[in-house]
Amino acid sequence: MASRSNGTTNRRSLWHPAVDFFGLGGLSIMIIIGALFLFPATDSWFAPFSRSLAVEEGRPVLQRFDALSICLLLTILINHPHFMASYRLLYRSREQIRTYRWSSIGVPIVLAILSIAILLSGATESSLMKGDDSLGAKLLTAMNVCVMVYLGWHYNMQAWGVVCTYLFLGGIRVNAKEKWMIKSGLFVLVVTHALLWLASSPMFVLYESVSKVCVQLTPFIPFVVFPFFIAGSFGFYRLAKRTGRHIPLNAVVPWLAVYVWYYGVMNYYDIVGAVVFVQLAHALQYMVVTTRVEANVGRRSGRLTGGVFSGAVYLLLLAAGYIVFELPNIVGMQVEAAEVYGSGVILLVTSINLHHFFVDGAIWKISNPEVRKDLFAHLEGN
To answer: Cα 121 to the chain's mean position, in Å?
Structure first.
C-alpha cells in the first residue's frame, strides 16, 4: 500500500470520500460553526432553551425538544442503532465471543451484579437527590460518574481510531512523537468532557464543592485546550513533511470534529440539545465504520450485495434499538411500581452504555489484522 501514489491512496475510502467526510465529522463541524454565526448565545435567543431557567420556572427541561420531536427521532434513527451495532459485531460468531471473552461475558456479568445490587438496595435517581447515602446509592453514583467520564474517553478515542483508519488508507504511518502531538489533545478533551458533563449533572447538587470547582474551572478550558490543538496541527504538518505525502482530509476531520463539538458545548452549555447533538454526531461517525464492515461481510458471504446487506442489518439494528431503549419506557407507563421499574430501565441503559464503551475499545484496533480484513475488504484488488 505504501508504494501507491498519493493520488491513488487518497481516493481510498470507506464508502466515498464525500460520504465519509460528512459522516465522520464534516457535517457536525459545519452545523456547529453555522450555528455559532447564526444563533449566538445571547440572552434573548438563549432563554427558551435554557436548562437552568426551565428548572427555575418548574418547566420540563426537555419540553421544547420533545414538542419538536427532532432529538427523539434522530436518536432513534442514529444513536440507538449505533449501540446495537457493537453487539452485532461482538456476538456475531462463537469465535468472536471466545476472542473477546471478557467483553462478551465478563463485563456483562459484572454490570448485571452491580445493577441487581442497586435495585435490591432501593437506591434510585430520586433517592440520590434526597440525600440517600446508602451503599446502593454510592454504587449508583459511581456508575453514573463512570458513564459520564468514560463517555468522553469513548468519543475521543473513537475519533483517534478513525484518524488512524484514514492514515492507514493513505499509506501513512505516524511515529511516536507525531502520535503524541496529535493524540495528547484528545486526552485533554477527555478531561474537558468530564469537567463539563459532571458540572451539569443534577446529582452533583449533593456535592456542592465538586460542582463549584467544576464551574470555576470551566472558563479556563479554552486556555488549556488551545495549545494542544496547535500541537496537534503541527503534528499533522510534521507527519506530512516527514513522509512527503498529503494528509487525507478525512484523517483530519474526526480530530477537528471533537474540538468543534466541545467548543459548541461550551458556547451552548445550558442547552440540553447541545449534548444530544454531540451524541448524534459521534453515533453517525460510528455508523459510517460499522456499516462498511457489514457491507464487506455481506459481500463476502455472497448472500446479498454489500449495500443491501448493510441496509438490512441497519433495519434490524433500528428495530432492536427501539425495543431495548424505547419500548421499556412505553411499558413503564402501565407498571404500578413505576419508580422501581424506572430505576431498572435507567440501570439497563447505563449498563449498555458502559458495556458499549468497553466493547468499542476492545474490538476496534486498526493494528488487528482481523479488523483490517473486515473494514478494508472492499478495497482488495483496487
So the answer is: 31
> Does some domain include residue 1?
no
Local structure of 119: helix, strand or coil: helix
Whether residue 248 is contained in a domain is answered as yes
Instruction: Report d(CA 83, CA 93) in Å as an integer.
Output: 18
Region 183-203: what's the mean pLDDT?
85
Residue 138's pLDDT is 84
> Model confidence at 208, in pLDDT bands (50, 70, 90)?
low
Check residue 274 and give its pLDDT.
76
The per-type count for the chain, helices as H runs and strands as E runs, is 22, 0
- Alpha-carbon torsion 221, 202, 74, 36, what sign? negative
CA 142 to each of CA 69, 108, 216, 364: distance values in angstroms, whole numbers, following the listed order? 31, 17, 23, 26
Of 151, 111, 119, nearest to 136 by C-alpha is 119
Dist. CA 234–CA 228, nearest whole Å: 10
Q: Does the CA dihedral 354-187-29-224 come out positive or negative?
A: positive
Per the structure, the complete domain to which residue 168 belongs is given by: 6-38+58-379
- State the pLDDT at residue 141: 84
Residue 47 resides in a domain: no
Gap between the Cα atoms of 207 and 214, Å rounded: 11
Per-position b or e across 200-237, b if 16+ CB within 10 A of its CB: bbebbebeeeebeebeeebeebeeebeebbeebbebbe
Q: Which residues contact 344 (CB under 8 A, 6 or more apart)?
A: 115, 119
On whether residue 309 sits in a domain, the answer given is: yes
Look at residue 271 and give its three-state secondary structure: strand
Q: Report CA torsion sign: 37, 42, 47, 50.
A: positive
Cα–Cα distances (Å) from 78 to 233, 279, 281, in that order, read: 30, 9, 9
Please give the pLDDT value at position 205. 55
Comparing 66-75, 158-167, 174-183, the range with the smallest average pLDDT is 66-75
The pLDDT of residue 1: 33
d(C-alpha 321, C-alpha 270), whole Å:
28
| Structural domain total, the chain | 1
**Predicted pLDDT at 59:** 54
